[in-house]
Write a structure and sequence with these properties.
The chain is of the alpha/beta class. It is built from 15 helices and 15 strands. The strands form three sheets. Strands 3, 4, 5, 6, 7, 8, 9, 10 and 11 form a nine-stranded mixed sheet that branches. It has a four-stranded antiparallel sheet with strand order 12-13-15-14. A hairpin with a 2-residue loop joins strand 6 (about 205-215) and strand 7 (about 215). The radius of gyration is 23 Å and the shape is globular.
């Protein structure tokens, strides 16, 4: 829509400093002439920017650039002594819907048309894939495409070292089944992605939550448990962690690899958000510093491209043969046509181009969500400032996340309460918000993300 294009230009001028805070914008009539649009378009644009918090209307005076709000303080990182606890499967609550609860890109950010072209090219060679079982390790073309792609980040590996699976969570599951037994304890970060906690509960593993820090995790506590053999493995996201958005520093990642080697303990690295950084440099995984093969590096296109493809991978290091065998028993590979389409999408450069575009959009999107929440909730919240990924971690003193979640479900609003990210009595005043849907995305005459965020704000303001 023309008014959104006009709004994007004004936002870019504000972000660049060409329109400083509290400066007055041209009148609606003058803006209509400047941008060669109708008065109706100019009015829609200004009102839209006002709703998003970029402009403020002053009666009898005009529209002004909103004074940039001071960044909200980050949520607290509780300090505690790690101990062995038991995760539990949450009660069945039905499939979550809506833009805020599930960490994923909004439909408008997906390169559907470009990927469909890759699917059509794969279909031209369908007989090659329909006449045989797929390779249990993954189609060679996809493994080679992924190896070439990640080499572009300065992270080289051989295609023969990679195993393709059904998404990242499946890659993690196989890694856990290979390296631990029911009843074993696994070291995790705190807070930890609720999906990993549910997986650990399903596999009958116990956990040791390691406190998060501004640099990553408390490596001293981790080493304490490794040295005393309290844990059989570690399971950590290392870049743009879900839910708090923290990335381990390069020194932390290197130290994590050294600890794995020193104590001969497998570390499973869930690196699903690696390619969704908001800057120009993609951080290297801890696997980069792995010299002995104790790190099993897992990833996927579920967050970057399509959750529906269900394609992920693992670089299992010294566990390669066992991992490959585990994948092949009872499973005769993954859909070969899907793998061929993804290999084509990566090999033609479309995946790289998509990532370049979506990273810059996410940076602006995260900022828009932060501004929206801060303008509505003022000084009553602490808010994460992630350097990448799709989610925001919000803390509101006195918030009862369990009660908030109950009320949200009553009105059909999906959110992730903080209590789902721990086995301890922590994060009761926190919640995770997916920021992957643009606030200006329109669907059937509505704006799903913006409307959901306004509903959430209302629930927080009126407990």
């Amino acid at each position: 829509m023309r008014y959104k294009q006009m709004a994007d230009q004004i936002i870019a001028d504000i972000e660049s400093g060409r329109l400083p805070g509290n400066s007055r914008l041209p009148s609606l009539r003058r803006s209509a002439r400047l941008y060669s649009v109708s008065m109706t378009t100019a009015i829609n644009c200004y009102h839209y920017l006002e709703e998003l918090g970029w402009l403020t209307a002053k009666p009898q005076s005009g529209f002004y650039v909103s004074q940039p709000a001071l960044p909200a303080r980050p949520p607290g990182l509780p300090r505690f002594e790690s101990r062995i606890t038991t995760p539990h499967m949450p009660p069945a609550a039905g499939r979550m819907s809506g833009p805020l609860g599930i960490s994923q890109l909004g439909p408008s950010l997906l390169p559907t048309a470009a990927f469909n072209r890759s699917v059509k090219r794969a279909l031209r060679h369908s007989s090659e894939y329909l006449e045989r079982y797929p390779d249990p390790q993954g189609e060679a073309a996809l493994r080679q495409a992924l190896a070439s792609h990640f080499a572009g980040y300065g992270f080289p590996f051989a295609a023969s070292e990679l195993v393709i699976g059904n998404g990242c969570i499946d890659a993690v599951r196989v890694a856990l089944e290979l390296t631990t037994q029911p009843g074993d304890a696994v070291a995790i970060s705190s807070p930890c992605f609720n999906g990993l906690l549910e997986l650990l509960a399903l596999l009958d593993r116990r956990v040791v939550e390691i406190p998060s820090t501004a640099e990553g995790i408390d490596l001293e506590q981790l080493e304490h448990h490794l040295s005393r053999r309290h844990v059989k493995a570690g399971l950590f996201s290392t870049t743009h962690m879900n839910p708090q958005g923290i990335s381990m520093t390069p020194r932390q990642k290197q130290k994590l690899a050294e600890l794995a080697e020193t104590y001969a303990t497998p570390i499973i690295e869930d690196d699903i958000y690696m390619e969704l950084g908001h800057g120009n440099v993609t951080p290297l995984p801890a696997k980069y510093w792995d010299r002995s093969g104790y790190i099993l590096w897992c990833g996927s296109v579920s967050k970057t491209l399509s959750a529906g493809l269900r394609i992920g991978w693992c670089l299992p290091g010294r566990y390669l043969e066992r991992y490959r065998q585990h994948r092949s028993v009872g499973q005769f590979g993954l859909n070969a046509l899907s793998q061929a389409a993804l290999a084509d999408f990566i090999g033609t450069g479309q995946y790289h181009a998509h990532l370049q575009k979506v990273r810059s959009l996410l940076k602006r999107q995260i900022s828009a969500y932060q501004s929206f929440l801060q303008n509505a909730l003022a000084d009553n919240i602490a808010l994460s400032h992630p350097s990448g990924g799709l989610v925001l971690w919000l803390q509101s003193p006195g918030l009862n996340c369990t009660e908030l979640n109950r009320r949200a479900r009553e009105i059909g609003l999906g959110i992730r309460p903080g209590c789902e990210f721990t086995t301890l009595s922590l994060y009761q005043d926190c919640l995770r918000i997916n920021a992957g849907w643009p606030l200006d995305y329109e669907q059937n005459g509505r704006y799903p993300a913006r409307d959901a965020l306004q509903q959430l704000i209302g629930l927080i303001q009126h407990p």
